[in-house]
């Protein structure tokens, strides 16, 4: 359970019912999940500070106010932000140029709080209220169509970010991690089931001796895993083709796809292949279930 506490005049933070030092440090972090501290998210950075492996001045989104909060908790002096981790700045918002977006989904896969919606080969959009300004969607974009636009004038750090926004970002990140864990578990379970099925079918294909003399029968498509796979792919392609035709009729078909260069297409294919290997579900499905 998380409750809101006033730790100093004008400073409210959300604290959890847990008691470890890492928990209390995490409660003070802005939760943009930007990785600028050098850790994959706010929680691992909190754990590193608690373990004495990281300094408490590595979080640019928290700025000097964030350093002061951590210093107060840890009983240490307020020190300057480490410039190697970045600078305190007005909070930016990611904005996608929809005329250039090719719908490759790479930004969605990079966003730590699921703030981007869209589907493969269709334009993508950032949900402003959910964007933490973490910058993580910018580098993967193969057509460089994401701009980070400052939206808080001169306000920086915690002056540009509220505790409610931090709480919401943390919750969305936690949900994303839980979903990814479920998807990985499901992928492992599917792989185990396939392996078990292959194992179960093996004795039948290496039939008993007396069967070796019987005339060889062609395997039925229903029992041939490769044939099944091809049929599933064929059906999926057919569904995608029909969907594309429907969207085109409504004037809402995929945009910019004819402008994709061979390099970009290779990146898209590699991303799709990665998702297939990991057994991750469709990105559009994912966001529909979240909103
Ligand atoms: S907001 Fe960014 S820099 Fe700060 S702790 Fe979280 S991930 Fe690290
Ligand atoms: S849209 Fe981009 S900048 Fe905004 S939270 Fe997602 S990855 Fe970060
Ligand atoms: S082209 Fe850029 S903005 Fe569009 S989906 Fe790909 S990464 Fe996202």
Task: Explain briefly what this protein structure is.
The chain has 291 residues and is mainly alpha-helical. It has nine helices and six strands, in the order E-E-H-H-H-E-H-E-E-E-H-H-H-H-H.
Q: Label the CATH architecture of the largest domain.
A: 2-Layer Sandwich
Using the CA coordinates, give the radius of gyration: 25 Å
Structural class: mainly alpha
- Strands across the major sheet, in which order? 1-2
Number of strands: 6
The shape, in one word, is globular
C-alpha termini separation? 23 Å
Question: How much beta, percentage-wise?
Answer: 5-15%
* Integer tally of domains: 2
Pick out the low-confidence regions. 207-221, 253-258, 281-291
Mean pLDDT: 80
- Write down the CATH class of the largest domain: Alpha Beta
Name the ligand types: iron/sulfur cluster
Percent helix range: 40-55%
| Helix and strand element order | EEHHHEHEEEHHHHH
CATH topology of the largest domain: Alpha-Beta Plaits
The number of helical runs is 9
Characterize the biggest β-sheet. 2 strands, antiparallel
Structure description:
- By secondary structure, this protein is mainly α.
- The protein folds into 2 domains: 2-87, 3-methyladenine DNA Glycosylase II, Chain A, domain 3 (Orthogonal Bundle), CATH 1.10.15; 90-202 and 224-291, 2-Layer Sandwich (Alpha-Beta Plaits), CATH 3.30.70.
- 45% of the residues lie in helices and 9% in strands.
- The chain contains 9 helices and 6 strands, in the order ββαααβαβββααααα.
- The strands form 3 sheets. The chain has a two-stranded antiparallel ribbon with strand order 1-2. The protein has a two-stranded antiparallel ribbon with strand order 3-6.
- Helix 1 packs across helix 2.
- The longest helix has 43 residues, at 163-205.
- Mean pLDDT is 80; it is low at 207-221, 253-258 and 281-291.
- The structure holds iron/sulfur cluster (3 copies).
